[in-house]
Amino acid sequence: DKVWTMRVPRRVQELNKKVNEAKLLLEQQNKKKPKVNEIAEYIGCREEEVLEALEASYGYQPVSLDSPVNSDSEEAEISLIDKIGSQENNFSDIEYKDFIEKFTSKLNELERNIFEGRFFKEKTQSALAKELDISQMTISRIERKVVQKLRKEYER
Length: 156
Prior knowledge:
Helix content: 55-70%
Structural class: mainly alpha
Strand order of the largest sheet: 1-2
Shape: globular
Number of domains: 2
CATH architecture of the largest domain: Orthogonal Bundle
Oligomer: single chain
Strand content: under 5%
Largest sheet: 2 strands, antiparallel
CATH superfamily of the largest domain: Winged helix-like DNA-binding domain superfamily/Winged helix DNA-binding domain
CATH class of the largest domain: Mainly Alpha
Radius of gyration: 19 Å
């Protein structure tokens, strides 16, 4: 049996199933791997949702670092480890730390507690909910807003 190795929201799990079915069908029809926009159009959702479902699929079964990465180009496929690259402990670490400090300073106390708890202390939403005496759903909503703020800030 295959199981999710990490907690993925039900709507994403369901969308993941639709995306995979659409990928297979479109690949059979068109004799080529479908692009994200083609999958989105076929199942009637946004491209971002398709990407989210595809990213979540990595939580369904572990992926080897030696596995080939799909590419839209006709070049030779490369392995996941080649795509990820190696970690450099230099200026980029300092830049990321500085970015996170500036970002968290713009959050209110509750948002900051949730952000730090979820992403730095690796606490579950349920554990944070108990700790902060609010519902898990509230944690989820605030976390989603914080991640959206983080994306906007990062894109600047």
